[in-house]
Design brief:
Blueprint: H1 2-25, H2 29-45, H3 49-80, H4 84-97, H5 103-111, H6 115-131, H7 135-159, H8 181-199, H9 204-227, H10 233-275
């Protein structure tokens, strides 16, 4: 009797877990079904090193796909005007409740997302990584930032959204509004730099603190653009989503590349040790 009750209870728990997964996937159920099928396939047919590389590559692809999907969905609503009432309502609220004394501080915060500051941080961080023999990390940082800036400029030209005109701007702007270049650059650079710094830290608490500080900085830069009246909320949200997705993709690629590099170095060292006893 007890065995039957335990079996029934286990079956009920399995059913509930399945139901929760199905309801959570919702409209994206076919996509997630394919993802988990691929993960199970990797687990069955790959082992050790190749399994790890495959998972990193898959995670990178998922980050890119998810970010692009969210961006495309948001961009469609922006282009169709569906977000305009919300954007206008937020901008009017900010204009009515804005504290003028905070404007100099917000200008300083927003400067952290400008191209010159971002590139200076990338150059210094990249040089440090290169000199400390983290060449793959340095290349990743340069590539992710460069591609991100180019992508943002292309998207700005494609959407050509006008800047908000709700209240006087607190800073100068020269390009179109969607997506926010400051928010996107901040998400790419600060999240990537924090990730690379966290990889060099031994304590888990220090790693999480570094990543959290980067996320807070990204949020502050994005919020400063709305506070200063130069971006709609949908602009900064799109920039953060796309920038974070691109950074996540680059991080996963770095992990996979470094795994390959370490494996190749190990194989080369083993081959050299095998040849050594035999002479020239």
């Amino acid at each position: 009797m007890r065995r039957h009750h335990a079996t029934s209870l286990a079956a009920a728990r399995t059913y509930l877990r399945t139901e929760r997964r199905s309801s959570a996937r919702g409209a994206f159920k076919p996509f997630w079904d394919g993802v988990f099928t691929l993960l199970r396939f990797i687990g069955r047919h790959a082992h050790g090193f190749y399994t790890t590389v495959g998972i990193f590559l898959l995670l990178g692809a998922l980050a890119a796909i998810l970010g692009v999907t969210l961006f495309v969905e948001l961009a469609g609503h922006v282009r169709g005007g569906a977000t305009q009432p919300f954007d206008d309502a937020v901008m009017h609220w900010v204009g009515e409740h804005r504290i003028r004394a905070l404007e100099p501080l917000m200008v300083e915060i927003t400067l952290l997302g400008t191209g010159s500051v971002v590139m200076a941080i990338v150059a210094i961080s990249g040089l440090f990584l290169w000199l400390t023999r983290h060449k793959h990390s340095a290349v990743l940082l340069l590539v992710s930032t460069g591609v991100g800036i180019i992508l943002n400029n292309v998207l700005k030209l494609a959407f050509d959204r006008e800047r908000p005109q709700v209240f006087d701007w607190g800073t100068d702007v020269f390009s179109s509004s969607f997506p926010s270049g400051h928010a996107m650059s901040a998400a790419i650079v600060y999240v990537t730099v924090a990730y690379l710094a966290a990889r060099l830290q031994r304590r888990r608490s220090a790693r999480w603190a570094t990543l959290f500080a980067a996320l807070v900085l990204v949020v502050l830069i994005a919020a400063s653009r709305v506070f200063l009246g130069v971006h709609y909320p949908s602009d900064v949200l799109a920039g953060v989503v796309l920038g974070t997705a691109w950074a996540g993709f680059c991080m996963a690629m770095l992990e996979a590349i470094e795994l390959f590099a370490r494996r190749e170095a190990t194989v080369a060292q083993q081959a050299q040790e095998e040849r050594a006893p035999g002479g020239l």
